[in-house]
Amino acid sequence: MLTNQATTRELYDRYVIPTYARFDLRLARGKGTYVWDEDGKQYLDFGAGIAVTSVGHAHPRVVRVMSEQTGTLVHASNLYYTRPQALLAERLVRLVGAPGKVFFCNSGAEANEALYKLARKFGNEGAPPAPKHSVGELISSDSNRHGIITMLGSFHGRTLAGIAATGQEKVKKGFEPLVEGFMHAPFNDGPSLLAAVQEPGIAAVLLEPVQGEIGINPASADYLKLARELCDRHNLLLMFDEVQCGLGRTGDWCGWKTLMGGDSVMPDAVSWAKGIAGGFPLGAIWVSDRPVKLKTGSVVPLCDLLGPGSHGTTFGGAPLVCVGASEVLATIEEEGMLANAREIGAYALGALRAIDSPLISEVRGVGLMLAVDLVSDFASRVAIPPGRAPSLWITDQFHAAGLLTVPSGALAFRWLPPLNVSRAEIDSAVQITAELLRKLA
Ligand code: PLP
User: Fold this and answer.
1) What is the extent of the structural domain holding 370?
2) Quick check: 181 and 175 in contact, CB under 8 A?
3) At which of 333, 352, 382 does a domain end?
4) What predicted TM-score, i.e. pTM, was given to this entire model?
5) 45 close to ligand 1 (CB < 6 Angstrom)
6) What is the pLDDT of residue 4?
7) Which stretches of the chain score pLDDT less than 70?
8) pLDDT in tens, 15-29
9) 274, 369, 414, best to mutate for ligand 1 pocket (most atoms within 8 Å of CB)
10) Which of 155, 355, 384, 441 has the maximum number of C-beta atoms within 10 A of its C-beta?
11) From atom 12 of ligand 1, which residue's Cα is the shortest distance away?
12) Ligand 1 geometric centre to CA of 134 (Å)
């Protein structure tokens, strides 16, 4: 018998596998930058589902097209063609600004899985580097390359390959043996990357232009330039995980272009998810059309390497979510949200930095990816209850004050509001933050 009398929390405790240590909030609805809990309490949503609801909750344009599409065609198998998928692919290639093709899936982890498979195909079937670029005796002309260099501090998702790729020990524990073939290099460290690409059997480098989960850590322009040069020199794929930082969050469609101030560095492949469809599950990769010489001697565009039968998904790229994603991306474009992310992001960064609190050690940000580091002795200064990390404890306090933020590690919290967040909403969040820190200090 269903227990309608039980609270949401009780039902979770009984029936939902406890993979999350959830905050004690039961959210019921959202509109714009606000959400409401089951008791009707309102919160400013500066988490946006961890950088997901890019145009805010229930944007009327998205509600309209998705309602219409629900009555038209929700799903069709990838055995067939559907126009919404075709149009979204065309739009995404245009947003990258370089020729290539797109594959659709359902999440960030899955998008990265497609990148790993692309790298393996490239390494196994592609011709090895020319001798002058080869890594000494380590790669013979017929050897397969399948290694992928990823970065310490990175996050690439929770699949088995995702946790192997992720440069954080905590996600791997208990799930050994890990998928082999991933090697981690310190982020933003040129000499380490230079050494890593010379290891035997490497096929690709995968990095987040702005590391998100670790607490907003942007790559330097020099590092991205070096990564491109090294990948060219050693015939490796350069792949960017833009699941969190892509599609507008940094104030450009492409996070790396924000960091480079243009397109002087271009990757071979990119993964997206999170904000791409404003809250509906969708992941995607873009792959460039650069020619790849195969061991067989033939040359194919990189974007055609994953050919028929090599990869697939039941749900990825279904008409409903593609119509929604196209509308989300059109809304970002037509309502000036890239400029908003840049301008309001800079305003928010300045306002957070202006909070004069002895409990803050650093404020960082790119566009509307912002992080505040708490001082290392926060727990003892504020005398928080033992066993709760400062980042989680302060998130509880923000919730009580009506603001949703996202913890990062033990000592930081992030703001990842919708890309159309207003100056007044930033002011309210700054006021809540300043007031809380003042009380705590
Ligand atoms: N890559 C990055 C950079 C992420 O931030 C995340 C999620 O936080 C992922 C991949 C995994 O995405 P998903 O949770 O949709 O699988």
Assistant:
1) 3-55+336-440
2) no
3) 333
4) 0.96
5) no
6) 74
7) 1-3, 130-143
8) 999 999 999 999 999
9) 274
10) 155
11) 108
12) 33
